[in-house]
Amino acid sequence: KSFLNHTAYLSCFFPNSQTADIKDLRVFWQTGTDEVVHEVFHGQEKHDNLSPKYINRTKMDMDKWTLQLFNAGIVDEGQYTCIIQHRVKGSPQVIHKSICSLHIIANYSQPEIALLHTGEQMAAHQPQKYLNLSCSSSGGYPEPKQMTWLISHENTTRRFMGHTDVSQDAATKLYNVTSKLNIPVPTNILINISCLLHLGDQLGSLVSM
Fold first, then answer.
1. Cβ-based neighbours of 181, under 8 Å, separated by 6 or more
2. Domains and CATH numbers, the chain
């Protein structure tokens, strides 16, 4: 995983790598569509075969056998294959091959609740207000899982699913999410309302003020 516009680290560590002499090896990374991302040929970086979009964006850390991909963007997401060939008599022999997947993360803004409008209605026992609320968060990646509402009163918390709209910016590929909720609330009781943006299993959640 790498944050948007930061450096991504793609590892190609292999057994006995500490004893390997880089001058005897050809090391190269390529994408799932076979574009060459980086190449080190017998200890020297080689640029002849690189895909244009990776020129001046990569550097290999020879000690850690890790490729640094600078300014990682959403278009860089996907699988990368590292292949290491050893120079022997005749054709080069592949001694290591590994695949890693790159996932980009962009932080969503803290969800914000806005009051759209209220309507009053007299119930049989107590006056009730209808709250029409929206909750929004923007500029994140990947696509969020869902947005839920939490309504708390004393020791009781109820969870609501509003009508959620997710849109993706065509240029930046970042997501915006808005959820709308229309709920009746008693006017004489203090309640807390918050909304929760679920980002996924490993990314956690964001909660509104």
1. 131, 132, 133, 134, 135, 149, 160, 162, 163
2. 2-105 (2.60.40.10), 109-203 (2.60.40.10)
- Pick from 152, 157, 115, 117: nearest CA to 136: 115
Q: Is the pTM of this model over 0.70?
A: yes
Q: Kindly state the tokens that stand for 24.
A: 């005897």
Contact 174, 142 (CB under 8 A): no
Residues 6+ apart with CB under 8 A from 164: 146, 147, 177, 178, 179
Question: What is the Cα–Cα distance from 46 to 34, expressed in whole angstroms?
Answer: 17
Amino acid identity, position 139: G
Rounded to 5°, angle at Cα 199 from 197 and 204: 95
User: Would you call 24 helix, strand, or coil by DSSP?
Assistant: helix
Give the pLDDT band (50/70/90) at residue 122: low
Q: How far is CA 125 from the centre of its chain?
A: 49
Label residue 9 exposed, middle or buried (CB < 10 Å: 0-12, 13-18, 19+): middle
